[in-house]
Amino acid sequence: MSFQNTEARIRTISDWLCIAGGWGLVGLSIWIVVNVLLRKFASFSFQGVDEYGGYFLAIVSAAGFAKAALDKAHVRIDVVTRLFPLAGRAIFDVVALGLLFAMMWIIASKAVLLTYESWSMGALTPSVLRTPLWIPQSIWALALVWFTFVLAFLLVWAFGRLLRADFAGIEDKLGQDDIETEVAAEIADARARLATSPKETV
User: Fold this and answer.
1) Alpha-helix runs per DSSP H in 42-166
2) CA angle 7, 98, 162 (to 5 degrees)
3) With a threshold of 0.85, does the pTM exceed it?
4) Which of 66, 70, 86, 58 is CA-nearest to residue 7?
5) What does this gene product do (predicted)?
């Protein structure tokens, strides 16, 4: 399987995870609004809105990190690196990716270990609902593992390009876009959305 095919599948999975997370956030927002209205006008509220909302935000954030990595959306400070020639910028990009992968490997490993400990201890939340902690923690850990896998995939590709001295390819895939490129991309995306959106009729 080629890199392009593998990347396409990874992007598809990440897209679906983000779509599911987005709809989940919509549902969470509705749940919160209903809970606030019930508390205001009926002196009643659902238990666990804040608890499960916190779990869901942690899971959605972890899943979104992978999509951000694929789209070069993670914030980076390039005040110094942009002063270097192409080869230097490419090396910095690979080093930054490697450090991010190393950090996420540690975090994901700790998350998996934490999930196992919660499961083996039968740990429950200190709330009225008494939710088994391993359930939200396992989903959160899986999202972090997915992000780590995406970083590993990009890192293997980057090392391959680095060995072939394809610095332009590395910068195109991993490098931070300049302001002009980002603005042009946003304008093109907005025009594409307008072109595909249904026309209003009077």
Assistant:
1) 49-70, 86-121, 134-163
2) 70
3) no
4) 70
5) Part of the tripartite ATP-independent periplasmic (TRAP) transport system.
CA distances from 182 to 4, 104, 171, 186, 187 (A): 23, 27, 14, 6, 9
pLDDT digits (tens, 9 = 90+) for 127-161: 777 889 899 999 999 999 999 999 999 999 999 99
Question: Among residues 118, 135, 160, 143, which one has the least CA distance to residue 14?
Answer: 143
Q: Which residue has the higher pLDDT, 185 or 156?
A: 156
Q: How far apart are CA 124 and CA 8, in angstroms?
A: 39
Q: Which amino acid is at 128?
A: V
Euclidean distance between CA atoms 35 and 32, whole angstroms: 5
Partner residues linked to 132 by β-bridges: 124
Among candidate residues 52, 9, 54, the one with its CA nearest the CA of residue 146 = 9
AA identity, residue 195: A
pLDDT, tens digit (0-9, with 9 covering 90-100), for 82-126 = 888 888 888 998 999 999 999 999 999 999 999 999 999 988 888
* Amino acid identity for residue 147 in this structure: F
- How far, CA to CA in Å, does 86 sit from each of 82, 92, 154, 164, 166? 9, 10, 19, 14, 10
183 forms bridges with which residues in the sheet? none
